[in-house]
Each structure stands twice: as structure tokens, then as C-alpha cells.
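Progress narrative, work stream C.
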Amino acid sequence: MFKQYLKQALNMLRENRLISLISILGTALSIAMIMVVCLVFQIQSASFSPETNRNRMLYIEDGTQVECSANRRYNGFMSQEAVRECFYTLKKPEAVSAWFSFPAPLSLPGKRMYNSYDIMYSDPAFWKIYDFRFLEGKPFTDADFTSAIPRVVVSESVARTLYGSTDVVGKPIILEQMPCTICGVVKDVSRAADTSFGDVWAPYTLNQMMLGLTQMEGMGGAFKITLLAHDKGDFDAIRREIEQQRDRYNTAKQDCKISFLENPITRFDKAMGSSGWRKIALKDYLLETGGLLLLLLLVPALNLTGVTQSAVQKRRSEMGLRKAFGATRGILFSQLLCENGLITLLGGVIGLVLSLLLLPVCKDFLLKDAETALHTDMLFQPGIFLVALLFCLLLNLLSVGIPALRISQQPITKALKGDE
């Protein structure tokens, strides 16, 4: 029976090409718009390499505040001393990493180059938290870090730019006038991985200038923190332990006190727009974003409702004729729903493809960094697509089902005349 319905539905699509095209494209537009908005949030929150454990991560990237007497206040990042006393001593997290990054030039021995690259200065725990895909070699070791041995990891694109291949382990480069040796090559990282992105990864013990930039009794500095919990249920316990370590650290200071305000925040908090200075509540985010999503769904869908209802009304005479030849209410109703379901499905598939095409085109204003590389594991999320598809299907079924039900209950004589 349903096979016959599908054949009839395809025939109806051919006969009413304009209305069918409007319905399919309208559904596709609804789904494409909602998918683009959801995909942007997904890129900011979902796990992908090398940030495969985002659901277990906590961050302190800003919101470090140091207050001293005489109304002196520092807002920024923390020093190596604060990292060592407040975070490296934590017992609850699985791993704690301190890092800072900034652009700097790279060169080859005997060949001065002026291109600037993003340098990520980190510690050995960084490689435990982030799941980098090594093409050659391995990360710098604890011994390299402790002894400030200049061994660095470079991205695939940097290796190819400098040497023309990824087989560069053991070869020299010049990082900020410092001779270094390449110890590993990793697959390029998307800028969407904002706390692990870099072109070169080096031990922060190499950068003595940044380590020496401290303020407010040695509390303020250049460091940010990423913490990896054993389980996301440990977040509250980790926050309490950080407060205890902070209070202990503050008691050793004479004049200044450090605080971390709303920190540490989760990846979900970051995706909602929260920071260490201001945390956005979930209900506020849903009120703002949920209204936008609903608008993106309803505007095209409600316009489609009028088109769909008009198309059903024009088929009153056909329905009346079929009833005269013995078609039951259930058969008429099922056929119309099947036809509309096919339209929604076609529109949904087109909308999914359209959203994946639109996001790279529109990422200049949708994402913070237009150079963000987009990968399949960042974009493909069946759950979001199914929710949007089901919502459109529901609206389309209501727009067809209500008039179809009224027509199927109408007396044959009135239906044949096409009476309202």
C-alpha cells in the first residue's frame, strides 16, 4: 500500500511542480538555517581531535584578578608561581596544563625568514590532555621541559613549508633567534580548537622573558590553564580544591590576594559565551538562542503552511471522486500524509547538504576566526538534523493533516463541488 502511495506522491510532485518546488525548498531553507546555527554551537562545544575530551575539560583563560592595598588591581593572567602553587598541586584532576601562546617568526639556519607563526608554549601535561595525531616523532619529554632543552613539535604545514616534507625529525629550526630541534610533527590543527591550536609547540621553560614578566607580588603573569577531570562529575570537587589551594597561596602573601572569579569554566560555558569575568546562565542562553532558533524554523514553516493548505484545498473534488468510488477516510488521509512526508524528507536532505555548504561560505561572520578549518568530525551530528527534520515534519503534517481530515469527513456531494 505504501509503495503505491509513494508512486502517487511522485506523480503528484510532477503534476504540481511549482507548488512541490516551493514546499521542498521552503523545508530545505528551514532546516538549513537551523542547522547552520546549531553547527556553529557544535563546533564550539563538541569534541574533535585534538580536543577529544572537551566534556571533561575545565578552563581558566581570563578572569584572573589580583587585588592589593592602595586600590591596586591587576586583571589578566597568572604567573608561573601561581600556577605551581594553585594548580600543579591539585590532586582531583587527571591532568593540569599551563600554557601561553603568541605569534613569532621561524627561520632555518643560514636562511632568515619573516613569516610569523603561532607558537604554543606549554608543559608535558599538555600532551596528556590533548589527543594530537603525530605523523612523525613524539612530543617533548619531562626531561626536555625541566632542563629547558630546545626540542619542539611542528605542524604538518610548517614542516612542508620549511623543508618540503614531514620527514623533519631531528632537523634544526630557529625560533625567536633560538636554535631548536624538531622532535615531532603533528597533523594540522583547526583554529576551532582554540586552546590547543598552534603551528609550533615548545616547552614554556624556553621562554625566560615571558616567565620573568610577573606583577603584584609575583602573582600576575602570562599563563592560562586547562584541567582534565577523570569524569565531568568531578567538576565541583575540582573547583573546591582550587579554592582551597588559592586560599593557602594567599595566606603566604603580605599585601596581594589572587582570585579566579567565575573560573574554571566548562567547554559548554565557553560555547554559550561565558568567560572568567561573566558566566551566562543556561536559562538566559536558551531564552536568547532558543527564540532565534524558533524564529528560524517558524517563519519559513508558517509560510509553507499556507501553500500546503491551498494545495490540499484544490484537491477537494479529487477526494470527493475517490470517496464516491469507495475510498475510505483512512486511505485518503494516509495518502496525503505520505505525499507530504516525501516532500519533507526531500527538503530535509537538501537542507542538510545546503547547511554544510553554507557554513564554510558564511564562516567569516559566523565564527570568530575566518581561518578556522572545518572537518567532518566537527560538522556531522545526526541528532541535530533529526530534531530539525522532525520539527518541520510535524508542522508540515499539521498543515496537511487538518484540512485533509476535514475533507475526508465532508459529504461526497460537497467535496465533488469543491465547496469550502
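Work stream C, second folded protein:
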Amino acid sequence: MGEATSERDTDAITARQFEEAPGTGDWRALARGAAALFRTRSLGEGAVLVERVRVLADGANHHPDVDLRPDGVVVRVVSHDVGGLSERDVALARDLSATAAELGLTPDPAAVQDVELTVDATDREQVMPFWGAVLGHRRDDENLLDPHGRWPGVRFQQMDSPRPLRNRLHLDVFVPHDQRAARVDAALAAGGRVTTEEFVPRWWTLADAEDNEVDVEAWEGFDEDLPDHLVAPDTFRAADGVDDWRVLQGASAYYATGGFDEGVELVARAARIAEEVGAPLFADLRYAGVTLRVGPPEDGWIDADRLVVAQRAQAAARELGLRADPSVLRDVQLTFDALDIPAAQRFWAAALGYATREDTDLYDPLLRGPSVFIQQMDSPREQRNRIHVDVVVPADVADARVAAAVAAGGRVVRDEAPYRRTVADPEGNEVDITVRPGRSEAQGD
């Protein structure tokens, strides 16, 4: 986000102060900053809002993160110079809400959330470089953050004593096929190790110094028969006009921009291309770049229409003089081992507010959080996880979210209401359901 500097460090406010400010009723304070979702009836309608965002943001010299989706636009405001929210965010949020209302768009504040991860470690300094390398994250104090503001931040929590048992939750990081070797090498150089080569070249299973695992995956050929209307990864990669794109979960391209305005222009053009073709498009606009994705979250496959969108969007980006950078691309997935997959799927759908995909998968309907895969476990393992999920939800949603998780088979194992409740799934995997407003005041910050 571009920042004004004249008010640096002078206008910081808390999450509660942001939400109590007049004109912020559409917005909810989350893990970092505050977000609003404005529902739209088409990609073209969303593109109009994105273009209005540009005018307001340029006028304020304060630029938000914007996620364009087929049925809505998510806007996130945050002031990086104060490490959170500021009065500048209140002013921009107020103006953005007024603009959305003028366009006849409906806010949906209950639908926004942030998913974060916590790794327990006896030596944080030893394991953090590994996770930074494998995820492509950067260090921010005691945390790791995605520099492109798309994937979960990672917090490292001190463990009192080692727990050598294997996790029941691990991460899958999907990277482009031509970036996978470099990503694995970087993770190994940062203190990781290969735990098995059984699944190479489909994926490499790596572990940090304390045996927390991650699979680094890339499409290396494809051996599943697909219906005629779908395009296999190898076929997509061989097509003309998609050199900038890479197949991950769906297909994605990242373009570095010289600033917010170039990114808005690309997103608007790509949205109108997709609307003309009649295919979904997902665009994440950041101050320094844009990520485009084709392949809907409910199945992730590419068909002929989505291939056309990719080809035409690439042509539009090159007309604008933008440069693709495939090394930025990645998708993140959480994999849970479970004895009872349907029970685990019901719980995590409720706890995360996710939708189900086939018999073992879950996905964020807004495609802003990591996907979930539930993997069959052969026998019980009684250990507690060393990696757990944090979902930061609006304060007025938290009670209902906890109740839904409990109704889906979970149990509350730690209650620090209203700010945090830890809920375990039927097999003991934990999630912290948390809220931000009021926490700073309660802690005396």
C-alpha cells in the first residue's frame, strides 16, 4: 500500500476505534487492517468499483489491497507505517463505502475473515528461515508475512519442551513447475531436510529442524483422464499466448506494476475480457503488482473459455508494458490427517466458513484463504498438533462461528471470550477463533 508520510506515526488507532468511527459500518477489523466486501452482479460491475477505488486512493495518497471476484470486491485498508490501522484508513473506508453505495452495491461484512497459522517451536530462530524460504514469506518482527498480502501470515509460539511426534496437519505449497527446484533448494539451505523421496517428482516432502512438514508441489505431467471440455495442465502449458501463466490450483499469472494505477488498468481490462468470454476471473490487486487466476475454486479446472481469458489477459498486460514474474506465484493448502473424513470435513467447513469440494476438500468461497485437503489416517495418533490454524473473524460473527463449529462435532478446549476461543475437531486438531476489536484496550496497549 502506498503511504502518506506527513502523518507518520501520529494517527494510529486501535481496531475498536476504527469500528466505532462514523461511516465504517461496512468494515471489520481483522488480522492486519480492516476489510469490506461489496457484492456485485458481474465482473464488469466490480471493475467499475475498482476504478472508483483508484480515484479515491490516488486522491488520498493511500492505497488499499483489492480482491476482485466474480460476485464481489474485497477491499482491505491498512497503514504499514504504523503497523496497523490509522485515521487515514477511516477516511478512505468512509469514502469507499459512500462510493459503493452510490453504485448500488450491497456490503456483506459477515463474509470477510483472515486465516493465519501458528507453529509451535522450541527454537523460533532456527525454524523461521525454513518457513520463510518455503513459503516465500518475509520476516516481520516475530512473524512471517506474505510480501504480496495474499497468503496466511505465520506466527511462531514458544514451546516449553520438544514434541517429537508427527503432526496431523501439514502444509502443501504449490509453486510453478519451473520454480520448484529453486524453492526446494532454498528451503534446504535454510535448515530444512527431505523426509521422503517416495512422491518425487509430484511433490517433495520437507521438514524444518523440529520435524514440522510441508509438501512442495508442482505439476509434472498429468495422468488423469478429463472430460473433453477441460484442459489438462500439460495442454494448457503448451498453448500459445500463455507464457506468463503457470498451472497451480487453476492457472495464475503475476504482473509487477509501476504503481496502483497500472494495476487497476490491468484488472479492469481482464475483468471485462472475462465477462465478454463468460468465464470467472479472480484478481488480487496490490500496490506493486497484480495476480490473475482462472479456474474456479469449486473445482479448480481450466476449460477452453478460461484458456481464452488467460490468452487475452496476457495480451492486455503486454500492451500495458507489464512484466510477468512467475517466481511470485504460489498456492497454499492445509492438509489434515483424519480417521473420519466426513466428520472432519463438516467441522472444518463450519469452523472456517468454507465450502465443500468433492469428498475430501474445502475451499474459501472468496478464494482469499488456503484450501483444505483431508487425508485418510490409518490409525489414531494422540499427540497435539504443533501447527494450528487461527481464523480471525468479525467480532459480531465470532459467537455464531464457535457455535457452528461445536454443532459440527467440535469442542471448546480453551475459552478466552470474547477475544479467543480454541475449538478442537472430533480428532483433536485445534483452531483458534479470534477477534481483534477491544484486544488492545484489554491488554493495555
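Confidence is low (pLDDT under 50) at residues 1-7. No further action is required on this item.
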